[in-house]
Amino acid sequence: MEQLLAMNGDQAIAYAWKQIDPDVVAAYPITPQTIIVEAFSDYVADGQVSTEYVCAESEHSALSLCIGAAAAGARTATATASAGLAYMWEMLYIASSMRLPIVMAVANRALSGPINIHCDHDDSMGGRDAGWIQVYGENAQEAYDNSVMAFRIAEHMDVRLPMMTCLDGFITSHSLENMSLLPDDVVKKFVGEFKAIRPLLDIHNPTSYGPFDAPEFYFEHKFGQIKAMDKVIPVMREVQADFAKISGRSYDIVEPYYVDDADYVVVAAGSTAGTLRAVVDELRADGKKVGSVKMRLFRPFPAGEIAKVLEGKKAVAVMDRAISIGAAGPSFPEVRSALFDVSQRPKVVNYVYGLGGRDVGVDDVKVVFSQLMKGESKVVNYLGVRQ
Amino acid sequence: MSPTIKELSHRPAKLTEGHRLCAGCAEPVIARQVLMATDKPVIVSNATGCFEVSTSVYPFTAWDVPWIHSAFENASATIGGVEAAYKALQRKGKYKEDIRFVVFGGDGGTYDIGFQSLSGAIERGHYFLYVCFNNEAYMNTGIQRSSATMRGASTTTCPSGLCSPGKKEYPKDLTKIIIAHDIPYAAQASPHNWKDMVDKAAKGFEIGGPAFMNVVSPCPRGWRHDPSQTIEIAKLAVETCIWPLYEYERGKWRLTGESKRIAEGKKEKRPVSDWFKSQGRFRQLLTEKWASVAQDVQANVDKKWNELQDLCKE
Fold it and tell me: ipTM of the predicted structure?
């Protein structure tokens, strides 16, 4: 029996972890992720999990603890945001190079400076090259569902890579929603037992983790990560299909909305994807041929899926809640590049929006569609900024 | 009863031959002595540094026990994670072995960049033995100063020159800082006194919580001495009271080895000038120009030695 409860995104993630009961959780609190570690601490204090929960003295140590735990042979999870993720940056690469399937929730928040606690995606986008799988959830339900699926995807024997489950800070992390939760036993069965590969705790087969790697081998080890990342999309499809069977909720890698016959399409990740659908509904009621795409997966980048969905459109706007200063939003060049080889190439423009938690509502998104349809968009646009 | 040297020699080597550390490096000597001190299986975490690079060049490894190197500044957090996994899997009934956990780091990975990680791991009470190879500079990157470098030593980032004697500052007293964590066990040791070192490591392994050993580790390349002199120079560090041997066990301070005998008047305390003469990094202190620096260092060694003797009084 599914259970209906009101929860925010952070609580939903902690609840999923409670059901999964990871062996080790090591974390350091940072807004807007804090509710995850607080809620999980309650589960530990009440004996509802058998997890070894370690309160690290910093995010750098939190991820280092996770690396030690995962290498030792434990199912391991952590959570962070913003500066915390930036502080982990060095260890992100080490976790993925050791092929440790650590699951990390990221409550997306702007990076300092200036200091700001609200949502944008600059934090996780900064980790996009670190060899982690990245999925972006739209709402609390998806935050929960992604958390359950993440362990299956990261730990899959063809993958064995760490994975970030991202949710929009405050917008999703702190907003109460009606949630549909799966029973504990269904989640446990879905996720299954953790299978360690050459764990440190296997003292009879001693393994050296993290040796010095000279030019003769480094490239091949990186190539191993690249090949593993190539397996993520088929594995994620399989896991999403299995998840639909237990939950009735179907997910895809990229999720098109009224795209088939659309001329103008707007793409976004995270909570803005919901706003896009509301605007598409309104514009469709006015007879406009518009659609939207929710980009759930950013790493690996689903270039083939994006090309398939957007080929032949008149114009596409890519919305980025992040900025690579001196270039554009980080997903824009990737979407545009994915469309370079299609025979009917749409015009592709970029809208950087909502930095530092600037609210972007229905009216703002209507501006994007309107400019796109009128051909008034520049290549890179900054939505709602006072210039 | 502590084991005899014959018994120790029959224990299987956890760090085997074939590593690429320099001739005369004290680190493998210290590591072997420490690892001999337990007959339990061990898992090793290693900070980035000479010891990590030289014992693990892929596809080879000199380690016959599980070993992990993740980064420079986080060897303590990494072993904390291994120990957390151990506790969790034992609690879940999935693991039965009785394991000991040990960290090796240089003074860079311990005094400086790894200090936060070490302090946090001690405060959380992870059960592990931390061993610092104190060679008083960043030797792996080419002899740059650290907060463990002695005043008056010349390094590549505090070279002696026309206007400078070398490092201007005194080293951080890390062992005392670690003791201020109310750690169950901490000690200073030297590889010349293998029995003292093995006894201390054995206590650290069995203390049931965090333990810390700070070990003087002469470096022929960085200290500018002949590789044959490593153990003699380690001994000289103790005889000059620059590096007193002592331990702190659940609130009790105790001098050990030669340091105990010096305090009891049974052994001569040698002047720091003997130490300066033994290593090229202090060559400038033997000149008239920097004689006052040499005197300052002697005064500071005496002051610290007197303070330590007071702490170690019954």
Answer: 0.97
